[in-house]
Amino acid sequence: MTLAPLLVNLGVTALAVALTMLATMAVALRTRVFSAIDVVWGLGFVVIAAVSYVTSLLQDAGDSSVRLVALALTAVWGLRLGLYIYSRNRGHGEDPRYAALMRKNEGPVVPFVIRNIYWPQGSIMWMVSLPVQFAMYQTTGVTVLTYAAVAVWLVGFLFETVGDAQLSRFKADPANQGKLMDRGLWAWTRHPNYFGDATVWWGLFLLACSHWTGLLTVVAPVLMTHMLVNKSGKALLERQMSRRRGPEYAAYVARTSGFFPRPPRRA
Fold first, then answer.
1. Least enclosed by CB within 10 Å: which of 42, 80, 194, 212?
2. How does pLDDT run across 82-97, given as a tens digit for each residue?
3. Can you list the alpha helix ranges (DSSP code H) found in the chain?
4. Which pTM was predicted?
5. Exposure pattern of 44-54 as b/e (b: 16+ CB <10 Å)?
6. How far apart are the C-alpha atoms of 230 and 227, rounded to whole Å?
7. Which CA distances in Å does 92 have to 84, 176, 184, 185?
8. pLDDT digit string (tens) for 228-247?
């Protein structure tokens, strides 16, 4: 791997993320729906992968096959996630989380949303995307590790996709109104979507590790897993569910894994 072209790419993608966040903010300020950033979250990674692909191609740096794999895996994951969140949120107005955040603002809106929404999410997006950017510049070519990376990614993608589909189907059935989803993958882990999301990024990390420099990007899957387990994902959702569901959710917690899939415990 040649360092100089990669450094150029890191700068170009940082600019691409900044422009993506600014465009998203402009739309949100116009519509007053700041939860649109949730749709852009997955799509932003697609932007980074596409920009990295073109930049590395123009620099004639990296292996063409690995570059295509990195682009394809990121694009499939990001587009699916963006479309799923868009379809789920369409017609529901502002997300209560963002509404509560905006009520805390006592000054100009733009500096507040940059500081609390767009700068943090843009920064995390860029850092989590590091394995994809590094993979674009790997010159080793396709190896056994490449196949292992795709296999890990596929496990994560299936968990996330199937879990989301099962939950959507469950909620769409009027007979399930007021019930707790504890079937299918949701019987094996309370968060198949978050487990799948994290696993996808561990797979992309492996894709960058054909060269030792890829090991430097381990911060990306660690950060993504930390966010999903301890911050905006599992921890936040479970606090809400515990308040709303009480003993019913406590029983679900007792029999079902919190993250890594396993067979449910007997009652």
1. 212
2. 999 999 888 888 888 8
3. 3-31, 36-58, 64-89, 96-103, 109-113, 119-128, 130-135, 144-172, 192-208, 219-230, 234-245, 247-255
4. 0.93
5. bbbbbbbbbbe
6. 6
7. 14, 20, 27, 26
8. 999 888 888 898 888 888 88
